[in-house]
Design a protein that fits this description.
alpha/beta, Rossmann fold, 8 helices, 305 residues, single chain, 34% helix
Length: 305
């Protein structure tokens, strides 16, 4: 497997709005080829959807982005050909019923059929098998997954893998296609501190080989540049219905004045309704659910694609 040339990733005012609200908005990115970046933000702020949009799996609705010189959203198919997904829950989950060897063979087969050049399908079967075996072996080496250390070797069931082993397997499958951009979701989920350090070391090694890496996490190491979702809109005159996904996890009630808080108890409140601040009306609280549902809608659409 030759070291791929990483894809530069640039975005300006990048956003996605679904039927029930903004999923993410006002994202700015300037990542050099072969660099590594973390995506941070509260749950429901569109972190996963941002990854899917940057890899051409989800169509953005605001601003623009370029991945490897391909402009989004016009060139989504071209971006998909150079970008690969590591583990993304609900989108490309590992098949728990397969063994590790079967999962790798399936990944190689799918990559050859849908992402590889058509001429590769015309080669003799023995040559194709040897080529796939070589790519799998090198991808496993880069991902740091030694099948010999697994309980039953390559016949180990996927369901029996530890969390970090599952991450390594997903990364190995993604690397089979020599991607210029690798995107991973929830990198540090259910990992100990030591395992998180191992996971970030793995991504640094992949970036050092030339692949641009984006990873969603709860907290990135200090030396990793961060792209944050869930930030307020840049324009102060933005309309309430265009609130960014950041507000999906913010607590609207903490911004309301104390005397405007009990909107739901207006019948027992002696103060006239005019004393309540306009922002503290029940619509603001309702917006949290609406925008979170916008994220859910977008993810559901990506799974159907």
């Amino acid at each position: 497997m030759d070291s791929p040339h990483g894809a530069a990733v640039k975005a300006e005012d990048f956003g996605l709005k679904g039927p029930r609200g903004w999923v993410f908005r006002n994202i700015a990115i300037d990542a050099a080829p072969g660099s590594i970046a973390a995506v941070e933000g509260p749950s429901g702020s569109g972190r996963t959807c941002l990854l899917l949009a940057l890899t051409g799996r989800m169509k953005p609705t605001a601003g623009h982005a370029e991945v490897g010189g391909h402009r989004l959203p016009k060139k989504m198919a071209a971006v998909r050909r150079i970008a690969a997904l590591g583990p993304v829950s609900g989108v490309n989950d590992l098949d728990q019923a397969l063994t590790v060897a079967e999962q790798l063979r399936e990944g190689a087969l799918l990559q050859r059929r849908y992402e590889g050049p058509i001429r590769a399908l015309l080669r003799p079967r023995g040559e194709r098998r040897a080529s796939a075996a070589a790519r799998i072996e090198e991808a496993l080496a880069v991902a740091g997954l030694d099948l010999a250390t697994l309980p039953k070797g390559p016949r180990t069931s996927v369901r029996d893998l530890e969390r970090l082993e599952s991450v390594r397997l997903s990364v190995a499958i993604a690397l089979l296609g020599d991607p210029r951009l690798l995107a991973l979701d929830d990198l540090d989920l259910k990992l100990s501190d030591a395992e998180r350090a191992e996971a970030w070391s793995l991504l640094r090694a992949i970036a050092a080989r030339g692949t641009t890496v984006f990873a969603v996490c709860s907290e990135a190491p200090q030396d990793i540049p961060v792209v944050r979702t869930g930030t307020p809109a840049k324009t102060p005159d933005a309309k309430p219905d265009s609130a960014p996904a950041a507000e999906t996890d913010a607590r609207p009630e903490t911004d309301a004045k104390p005397d405007a808080k009990p909107d739901t108890n207006t019948k027992t409140d002696a103060k006239p309704e005019s004393d309540a601040e306009p922002d503290a009306e029940p619509d603001t609280n309702a917006k949290t659910d609406t925008n979170t549902k916008g994220t859910d809608d977008a993810l559901a659409e990506a799974r159907r694609a």
